[in-house]
Design goal:
The protein is mainly α. It is 76% helix and 2% strand. It contains 16 helices and four strands. The strands form two sheets. Strands 1-4 form a two-stranded antiparallel sheet. Helix 6 packs parallel to helix 8. The termini are far apart. The relative contact order is 0.16.
């Protein structure tokens, strides 16, 4: 028994020594272990992540070569950025319901109705701050109606928001009596046409709105929960996200931003036609979907949307300076939307495949 116990003890000590010698290795041995090789990003990754930016750079270069005296000038760049400040706001408004997984087809109509309402109130003697505030409240009300129909009643978002847009178009005809409204208040006009450093202040409004919305979307729980709602509502509910609340908030906030864009458009343009609004919807969604293919591919994001707005603006501006017919610009916007949606779908599919 004693010999057997002694042999077991010796064997156990030998095993401990072997284990220690195996687990303790010198630094030189650790350094000689093979390191994983870093693979360079392939062409597909670069194209999906930075294709919009690359195409924008190419387009600027082409128009600069074709129009060296008019396109690559500070005055032209200033005019393009100022003109696109309000469409950029509408595109950012569209990002909110899109991030939640829904479309809001009433945003263009809200913009037009807000512009008409603010001019009508201002011309009736209402101070312009009150007129703008009323317009924002109307935008929030329209967003609230859309949220109620979609979230509580269960109406398809396409149908609900299209119905809202149709109602607003009828109200536009009622308020304008089918005629053009002209803004009389110089103070209201100065809200957007005042220049700082040679640039209209409306551009500063768009930049501030972009920064605020970027912070909300990327740096707050609201943005994360809103994106989780759009990525999968059932999974978000199981994770404790109040999906209905975030979806409703996206519609209301989008209505307010669209109304703000409309009030600023009334201030800057000084007029409002009965049919104002729907023409802004297509470029807004084209920019939003273009934005989903860059900066953060597969996700609707603020800076990608801003780049999408600039791309569409550069294309329209360059074509106009070349003297092409108006219908060419419409085709350009339509093709851009078609390509943007297709690219967004492909990027999302590529992201899901990579996740698997």
């Amino acid at each position: 028994m004693s010999a057997f116990t002694t042999s077991r003890t010796t064997t156990h000590e030998n095993q401990q020594k072997e284990t220690m010698s195996t687990t303790t290795s010198t630094p030189s041995e650790v350094q000689r272990s093979p390191k994983p090789k870093r693979s360079l990003p392939d062409f597909g990754t670069i194209a999906t992540s930075y294709g919009v930016i690359i195409f924008l750079i190419v387009m600027v270069a082409v128009f600069s070569l074709l129009l060296p005296d008019t396109f690559p000038t500070f005055d032209n760049a200033k005019a393009v950025l100022s003109d696109q400040s309000i469409p950029a706001m509408l595109a950012l408004a569209a990002v909110l319901p899109l991030a939640a997984g829904e479309f809001d087809l009433s945003l263009g109509a809200v913009l037009g109705f807000s512009a008409i309402t603010s001019i009508a109130l201002s011309d009736a003697g209402v101070p312009w701050p009150v007129a703008v505030l009323v317009s924002l409240l109307v935008g929030a009300a329209v967003g609230g109606v859309n949220a109620f129909l979609v979230v509580k009643v269960g109406v398809n978002a396409f149908i609900a928001t299209l119905a809202s847009a149709t109602i607003l178009s009828g109200l536009n005809l009622l308020l304008t009596n089918s005629s053009l409204l002209v803004l009389d208040s110089a103070e209201f006009g100065a809200l957007t046409t005042t220049e700082t450093f040679g640039i209209q202040i409306v551009l500063a409004y768009a930049i501030v709105l972009s920064l605020v919305l970027y912070f909300v979307m990327e740096k707050t729980p609201f943005g994360r929960y809103l994106r989780a709602t759009g990525m999968g509502r059932d999974a978000a509910r199981l994770s404790g996200v109040r999906v209905d609340r975030y979806l409703a908030t996206s519609f209301i906030a989008a209505g307010v931003l669209a109304a703000l864009a409309g009030a600023l458009l009334a201030s800057r343009g000084g007029t409002a036609a009965p049919t104002l609004g729907p023409d802004f919807l297509l470029p807004a969604y084209a920019a939003a979907f273009l934005g989903a293919t860059t900066i953060k591919p597969g996700y609707f994001n603020v800076w990608g949307t801003v780049i999408g707005v600039i791309l569409l603006a550069v294309g329209s501006n360059g074509l106009t300076l070349l003297g092409v017919a108006t219908w060419v610009t419409n085709i350009f916007n339509g093709v851009a939307l078609m390509i943007a949606v297709s690219a967004s779908v492909l990027v999302g599919r590529r992201r899901r495949r990579a996740a698997r």
